[in-house]
Amino acid sequence: MPPEHSDNQQQGPSRADLLRCIIAYADLFDDIDSNDRPEGDVRHRFLGLRAARARYVESRVLERGRAWEELQNELKSSTADLDDGDCLPRFEKAMVELDQALHWYSRVNEEDSKAAKAPVVDQYFMDSVFRYYMEQPGKGLRAPNGELRSLYGSTGHSVSPTLMASRGCDSDFIRDIITQNLMAPFHQRVFVPCQTYYRRILGRNAAQQSQGVSGATLDILVNTVECLIAVGCVAGAVILLYNLSSTKDRLIAATFLSFAFPFPVVFFSQEAMQTFSLTAMYATLPVDGSLLTLSRIWAVLIVFLTTANLSSKAD
Hints:
Keywords: Membrane, Transmembrane, Transmembrane helix
Strand order of the largest sheet: 1-2
Distance between the termini: 44 Å
InterPro entries: DUF6594 (IPR046529)
Transmembrane segments: 220-244, 251-269, 289-310
Domain DUF6594: 63-284
Radius of gyration: 30 Å
Helix content: 55-70%
Number of helices: 10
Organism: Trematosphaeria pertusa
Number of domains: 3
């Protein structure tokens, strides 16, 4: 169990405190690993510290640059003897030191750029993974890194922009509705009662509860809902056109549906867009009536153009 208090919390946790916290949060690390959920691996960006380090490294590069300019000016002077055996070692030393400083500066810039562009922590994974384990009984007042838990906030609080995740989470309209509005009541009214009943049958501890549906299961659930919506759009368009007997009504409906049919793709994830495109391919199958076939071809073309445009923007 992590320690409740240290002798001086202002100085940070001791080495022993850190070791206790790492051992106590082994379940969090196992969850991230076994369930493939790096979206819940919360880390700090340290942008302020990185900026201070970058300024220091910049000064080292400028210092090496001035040293090289001084040596260069000295070698250019008419009094310099380039055949002197001391010139080449001095030149090589100055270039090696300059190269080391530039390499250091390049590495710092690359690391800082990656940290600044790192994905933000998704609210759902912050609450259902990281904060979930911190708020379990017996965890004490400290986070996995030994610092106070208040540094990361409580469940429901907004995620600080100073935090990042090891892997980003694709955010789309359907997924946000499921995770933010539907998952909590589903967990309390469906998942928990079923889990409790199942554990009672097996004679296990019914009071213990997991964090519910998440990880790969949540992704499958979201993709399934999106695919159902895609199939529903296709079915609705086909059924409507089949039940219109008038050529004029079919023309109006086909023109409208060719633009309305691909509209849901705006709210889909990248994975669902591919399934949506394959579903729309059904619209090109030959049927009775050239008007219906033409409307399907229009819809497919718009779907593929929209999908390709959104995919290029995402990349």
